[in-house]
């Protein structure tokens, strides 16, 4: 109960106050808000839901294989040996956590009265982990490397080996005999998202689109990168190649704005209210009016989590400790209407000279080639898609949704738009 109350207090505490008329970047950023909601899933709400199912059964048993095993291997291939040293030590600790989660799950399964809520928890935990971990680690492994050996596993290949075969088929499926309802449909859909719908590639494009609101540098791709992606993901270039060529062309300031403001056939996406990853697979976007507010979701499962799972009652049972997905969640909404230079300054992503941005869309440290706050001041103000959605009439929202789901891949506008 204490953790649930902490979530409610934190979520409803006003970000704007008489003493501080502006938000502060410490509450989150363009990508950090995704990680924040992910971490809060470990420590808030019902103890079995959060600490056992979400954290130990799904996050630590399934997805740390890609985080603490696959990613350190990729780091070593790029000459970084510190990260593998640290992460492999962490992974040894994960083994104990996994054992704790397994024991807790078997204890809970011994009471048939728990099966209904365990099935709910596993569906929510699996889908949210997939949306966030695959988004982040998939992007790091695929787009943050210079190792383009053809015999190196792609993230999709790693996922199939470490998560689908090692976790799902070897660990999760055998638990069915104890009464655990396995979300087979969601696991297959997660694979479908990665392999057929380009989920990781869509996320990487979104991260690069908003480079100016981050705190890292993302360098443009080379022909060697293009060749590797096409080899591992046939058809990749036709979907994403042109946009990445534009990213390269627009990476250094030369009278133009950052790529998010330029005409490169990319429409800025709406955020998913639940997982905070944007609705990047456009065809899957759904909407709902929840708690008096119109919200967009990246998939029907995230809508179910907000509308059904995270509620005081579930299928007639009282579930007061689940908490709620409320408060100031969307990063864009916090800065709606702001000038972009003020946004970056407020987040603290400015170098010591007071004007050069921390983030850059290239790795050239020549001061003449780096973006500054002056470049951002001429850009249009930041607009929150959720604020704009709630300002629409019902007819406008219906038309917006119909158009949105016809968009993509790679953020493209509908062909008949």
TrEMBL record:
The keyword Cell inner membrane does not apply. It comes from the Bacteria. The keyword Membrane does not apply. It is an enzyme of class 1 (oxidoreductase). GO terms for molecular function: monooxygenase activity. It holds the Pfam family Phenol_Hydrox. This is propane 2-monooxygenase. It comes from Kribbella steppae.
């Amino acid at each position: 109960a204490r953790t649930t109350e902490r979530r409610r207090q934190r979520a409803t505490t006003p970000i704007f106050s008489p003493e501080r008329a502006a938000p502060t970047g410490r509450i989150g950023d363009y990508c950090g808000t995704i990680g924040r909601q992910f971490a809060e899933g470990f420590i808030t709400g019902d103890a079995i839901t959060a600490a056992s199912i979400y954290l130990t059964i799904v996050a630590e048993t399934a997805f740390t294989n890609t985080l603490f095993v696959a990613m350190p291997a990729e780091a070593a291939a790029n000459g970084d040996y510190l990260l593998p040293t640290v992460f492999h030590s962490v992974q040894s600790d994960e083994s104990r956590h996994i054992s704790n989660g397994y024991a807790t799950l078997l204890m809970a399964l011994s009471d048939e009265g728990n099966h209904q809520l365990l099935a709910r928890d596993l569906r929510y935990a699996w889908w949210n982990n997939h949306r966030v971990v695959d988004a982040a680690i998939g992007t790091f492994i695929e787009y943050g490397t210079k190792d383009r050996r053809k015999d190196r596993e792609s993230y999709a290949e790693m996922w199939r080996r470490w998560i689908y075969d090692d976790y799902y088929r070897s660990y999760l499926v055998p638990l069915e005999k104890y009464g655990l309802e396995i979300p087979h449909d969601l696991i297959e859909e997660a694979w479908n998202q990665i392999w057929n719908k380009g989920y990781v590639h869509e996320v990487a494009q979104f991260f690069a689109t908003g480079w100016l609101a981050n705190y890292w540098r993302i360098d443009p791709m080379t022909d060697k990168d293009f060749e590797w992606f096409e080899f591992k993901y046939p058809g990749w270039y036709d979907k994403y190649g042109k946009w990445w060529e534009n990213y390269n062309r627009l990476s250094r300031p030369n009278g133009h704005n950052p790529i998010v403001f330029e005409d490169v056939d990319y429409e800025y996406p709406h955020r998913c209210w639940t997982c905070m990853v944007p609705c990047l697979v456009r065809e899957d976007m759904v909407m709902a009016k929840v708690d008096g507010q119109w919200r967009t979701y990246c998939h029907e499962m995230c809508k179910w989590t907000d509308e059904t799972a995270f509620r005081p009652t579930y299928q007639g049972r009282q579930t007061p400790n689940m908490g709620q997905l409320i408060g100031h969640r969307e990063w864009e909404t916090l800065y709606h209407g702001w000038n972009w230079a003020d946004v970056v300054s407020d987040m603290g992503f400015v170098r010591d000279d007071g004007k050069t941005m921390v983030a850059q869309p290239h790795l050239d440290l020549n001061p003449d080639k780096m973006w500054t706050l002056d470049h951002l001041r001429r850009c249009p103000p930041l607009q929150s898609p959720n604020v704009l959605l709630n300002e629409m009439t019902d007819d406008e929202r219906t038309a917006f949704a119909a158009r949105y789901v016809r968009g993509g891949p790679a953020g493209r506008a509908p062909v008949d738009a």
